[in-house]
Amino acid sequence: MRRGNARGDELFQFQGRLYFELRASTGPPTIAHADSKEPLCLDQMRESDLLVAATDAVTGGRIAEMKRLNNYDAYYYRRDGQCPLPVLRIQYTDPERTWLYIDPRRGDVTSRYVARSRWNRWLYHGLHSLDFLFLIRRRPLWDVIALGLLLGGLVLSVTGVVVGWRYLQDLSRFFSSWAVDHSAWTQDVRNNQVREDGAKIAGASLCETSRREGRISQPPPMWTTARVRVRPIKQARLWETPPPQLSG
User: Fold this and answer.
1) Yes or no: domain 46-137 corresponds to CATH 3.40.50
2) Which ranges of 72-138 does DSSP label H, i.e. alpha helix?
3) Whole-angstrom distance between the N-terminal and C-terminal Cα of the chain?
4) Residues 55/56/60/66 CA torsion (nearest 10 deg)
5) Model pTM?
6) What's the average model confidence in pLDDT over 220-236?
7) Fewer C-beta within 10 Å: the chain N or C terminus?
8) Prior bond to 232 cis, omega within 30?
9) Digit-coded pLDDT (tens) for 142-166
């Protein structure tokens, strides 16, 4: 087996056997048996070995479909194009509806999907990162759409901040006006209370003075205090002794 132009060998195991992956300076890497004396190189594992490995990879179900993909599909892809191709896509009938993507060169499982992760691929990666094949394959279109969505989100954010700031200003003015009105109303109530208290004191003092001078025998009841306060002079004149009549 010639290895003079190899950049490096990698040892791995598949189905209980050891293999070398020979990476040449030119051309794709090749697979060789590590325990074989024959200089036999393979482009990929035998299909019978791959089928046995795929059958044992998932328990509780059988293989429903096995397909060789030479291009990326909606689930097996990378933006930088570094996923190995070709690949075997194997679908199973297990309760989780498992899909496996197996590299036929080495027999490695490169990707695994179940029903839940396939939904997550569309709802999260698809909507969040715009990971759609028709956009990824047309990268300038993906850039334009992504920048447009980012600018739209920025405009909505700035608009929300402006509207919120104006609302807070209106709310602050409302509470300030309410505080001023409430203070003025409280002051008016206090002034009215002071005036009423002063009138009551004045009325009581007038009644006490009239009682001392003999104009009234006892102070009027509380409900007449307002009358005494409103017309104290007239009530005092009514209680006075009429002047004597002059004879002609």
Assistant:
1) no
2) 115-120, 127-129, 133-136
3) 168
4) -20
5) 0.57
6) 47
7) C
8) no
9) 788 888 888 998 999 999 999 999 9
